[in-house]
Design goal:
This protein has 328 residues and is mostly beta strands. Helices cover 12% and strands 45% of the residues. The chain folds into two domains: 22-161, Immunoglobulin-like (Sandwich), CATH 2.60.40.10; 171-308, Immunoglobulins (Immunoglobulin-like, Sandwich). A hairpin with a 6-residue loop joins strand 5 (59-70) and strand 6 (77-79). The longest helix has 24 residues, at 304-327.
Length: 328
Amino acid sequence: MKNKLLTIIGILTLLVTLPLTVKAQQVDLAISPPLLRTIIKPGKSIMIAYRLINQGDPTIITAKVRPFSAKDNFGDVHIDTEFSGPIRFSLDNADLEMDKPFFMKTGDSVQLLLHIRVPDGTPNGDYYYTLLAETSPPPATEGIGSARTKASIGSNILITVTDSGAVDVKSKIALFDVISRFRFNLFGNPVRLVDSTDKIPVVLYVRNLGRNLFTPQGKITLRGNFGETANYDIVPQNVLAGSQRLMTATPSAELTCRSEACVTPTSLVLSGFFIGQYHLNTAVNFGENSPQIFASTAFIALPIKFTVAVLAALIIAVIVIRRLRNDE
């Protein structure tokens, strides 16, 4: 009897201490096109064909549309959890509906026929939405733990509603400057001082004051005191209505800047050996028939580290020579 009791206790202990198998669902979704931008009049509608591909595990998908807004100055967005706004969305698929789940096997490809309708009387302006394909948590299997999380992929929809077809483009350069560790005023003018061997971060923020988004283009030009010039193209990026955004110029700043001066995001990083005064100019345009806007800044580059090192070496040399003379 005692042996049987010990055997039962041992089996129960083994069952309790056995590790729980946890299986994480592999999610690999792709959607195209990843971005849609359209100009449409009130009372009109369009149809867009999206392609959704599942290369992960079999999963349950729900297609939904939600509005979004600019989250920060770096192109990130905040997607609302509830639908709002005057634009109407529906799926024209015979077997699929908006906000209704459907099943996709591994390797499945589904065409989503998104119908976008702008009702009569919709105010002119911009409306921003995201078409989301959201997975549902997989059902739990007895004896197997499953990660009960959701995943989603989205395609942004940028809609400009206009009666006349014209758009409202109002812009300004909010900031164009050099990030320097040494900055002071001289006769009321700001002076930016950098070391000749340092990487020099440049920031360019563009603000959208109009009712419609725009995509700035242009360049940043560096001119030296000996007439040398270098041009850097501004990468076209959408700036939503009522927001501002940090623009990026080629080559990419994030790939080259690792110094303390680049603790914040930058538009461009200048590298090389600089000596003297340099001028930076930017010219930005916003499409056909739109005026260019300009901004400028400047910096002075001196071999500060080299000069300090030479002075320190001279001071040490003088001290050593005096001590040697005193010892004589």
